Amino acid sequence: MSTRLITTAAIAFACLTALLAAAGGAAAATYQVSGEQTVVNEQNGTYKMKGGLVGSWKTTSFKEIAKSPVFKAKGTEHFQGCLDVNRNGSCAGDPSGTLDFKFLYWGKFAPDDSLVWGSCWHPVTNGSGDFAGAEGVLTMVDTPTANGVSTSYIGNITIGATKRARSASLPHAHCG
User: Fold this and answer.
1) Burial of residue 174, with CB atoms counted within 10 A of its CB: 0-12 exposed, 13-18 middle, 19 or more buried
2) Are the C-beta atoms of residues 37 and 55 closer than 8 Å to each other?
3) For the whole model, what pTM was predicted?
4) In the CATH scheme, what architecture does the domain 29-159 have?
5) Ramachandran sector of residue 160 (left: φ over 0; alpha: ψ -120 to 50; beta: rest)
6) How far apart are CA 170 and CA 165, in angstroms?
7) Tens digit of pLDDT for each residue in 69-103?
8) Considering only CA atoms, which of 95, 69, 62, 66 is closest in space to residue 81?
9) Cβ atoms < 10 Å from Cβ of 83
10) Are the beta carbons of 73 and 63 closer than 8 angstroms?
11) Three-class DSSP category at 119
């Protein structure tokens, strides 16, 4: 093989590697999301999301873990819709697809079974469409109101990233 051919191949390989690295890094983005979840049909576990996430939400599994001193449950959920990047309430032009979550729920109930407070943690487990490979977590807080329960959410969703191993040298965040 000629030196010129080897040099040309090496340059082409270096350029291709640089382009792939730049494309991979530029495509990943983390978005802060927050908003409200409203009940569509509580018996069926269906909800509507507005705010940073716009679309439908469904509880796909639910298992009670403890009743006392605090109610605790776990399960899975499915979101279909978009990440409303420009916060205009529309999905037009925004990343869209599905997200799957698992969750842990904690709640305190009064003797009449009315909600005193509730909170849950929802890490992303899977995604499709523009959410393929997504990572992130949402936290939700349930607050009793005169009309029932108000649920607010806040979190981060990273899209366009590839799954990667977490470095042991990265600092660890702690709650509490």
Assistant:
1) exposed
2) no
3) 0.77
4) Beta Barrel (2.40)
5) left
6) 11
7) 999 999 999 999 999 998 999 999 999 999 999 99
8) 95
9) 23
10) yes
11) strand
